[in-house]
Amino acid sequence: MVGYVDAIAAPLRNTGQVKLHGREGFDGMRKACQLTAQCLDELVDMVKPGVSTNAIDKFVFEYGMDHGAYPATLNYRGYTKSSCTSINHVVCHGIPNEKPLREGDIVNIDVTLVLDGWHGDSSRMYPVGQIKRAAQRLMEVTHEALLLGIAEVQPGARTGAIGQAIQRYAEAERCSVVRDFCGHGLGQLFHDAPNILHYGRAHEGIEMKEGMIFTIEPMINLGRPHVKVLSDGWTAVTRDRSLTAQYEHSVGVTADGCEIFTLSPAGKFAPGLSD
Ligand code: MF3
Ligand code: CO
Ligand code: CO
C-alpha cells in the first residue's frame, strides 16, 4: 500500500526508470551545476599546505548557504559533511577532518550543491604545493579519461561506450579503473538511474536518449583497481595503497551530443594540469 508520505515522495523516488528531462530540467541543472563549479573554482587558491579539510568543508557549507543552496551530502545516509575530501590513496568519500594538508598531497574535492531542488555534482583534483611527477601524470590520465568518456555521450549510443573509452585509455596508460563506484543519473534526485560504469564495452548498458542527465566520475589508480572501505563506513581506499585520482562532471544528453553542466566558468577544472 502507498501511504500519504510515500505518495508525496513518489515522483522523487529512484524507480529504476531513466527520466528524460526537458527545458526546465536543463535550466535547473545548469544553474545548480554552475554554482557547484564556482564553489570548486573558489577552492583553487584555498588548497595549500597547512589547510585542514574541515576548513575546506566549512567554506563549501557557507558558500552554499550564501547562494541559497544546500549541500546534498549533509545528513545523506548518515554522512555529516558538506563535501568529500579524498587524499592520495583515498579513492572517494574521504571525510573532512582537522588534519592539515601536506605539501605533495593530491586531494579530490567532491561537492554537490542543491539549488531550487536540482543537484549539481562535480569533483576535481587539487595539487597541494609541489607534487611528484607520478601524481601529476595520474591526474592527467584521469582528467583525459573523463573527457574521452564524455566524448562518447550522444543519443543512440549505449552507456557502455563511455566505460569502454575510459577503460581503454586508462589501461593503455598502465593505470586501472575502480569498479566499486560508478556515475549515476541525477536531477531532482542525488543518485538515480542509470548507473554509469567507467569500464566495459560499447554494446553494454542502456541506450542514451536526449534529455537524460547523469554524472561521469572515473576513479583511476596507479596500482591495482581493488578498493576497501575503512571502519568509518565511508572512506574508500586502494587496497594496495596506490595513488588514485578522480574528476567528475554532470552532463545532459542533447540532440547531437551532450551539455557539460559543471564546466568551470574560470577555466579551473583541472588546476595544476597543463592542457
Ligand atoms: N558526490 C558523491 C558522488 O559523486 C557522493 C557522495 S555521497 C556521500 O556521487 F555521502 F559520501 F557524501
Ligand atoms: Co556523483
Ligand atoms: Co560527486
Task: Chart the SSEs and their pairings.
Blueprint: H1 4-9, H2 23-43, H3 53-66, E1 70-71, E2 84-87, E3 90-92, E4 106-115, E5 118-127, H4 133-150, H5 160-172, E6 176-177, E7 183-185, E8 192-196, E9 213-216, E10 219-221, E11 227-229, E12 236-238, E13 244-246, E14 249-254, E15 257-260
Antiparallel strand pairs: 1-4, 2-4, 3-12, 4-5, 6-10, 7-8, 9-14, 10-13, 11-12, 14-15
Helix pairs in contact: 2-3, 4-5
Explain how this protein is built.
With 275 residues, this protein is α+β, with helices and mostly antiparallel strands. The protein has one domain: Creatinase/methionine aminopeptidase superfamily (Creatine Amidinohydrolase, Alpha-Beta Complex). 26% of the residues lie in helices and 24% in strands. The protein has five helices and 15 strands. The strands form five sheets. Strands 1, 2, 4 and 5 form a four-stranded antiparallel β-sheet that branches. Strand 7 and strand 8 form a beta hairpin. The relative contact order is 0.19. The model has no long low-confidence stretch (mean pLDDT 96). It binds 2-amino-4-trifluoromethylsulfanyl-butyric acid (MF3) and cobalt (II) ion (2 copies). One cobalt (II) ion binds at residues 121, 184, 215, 217, 248.
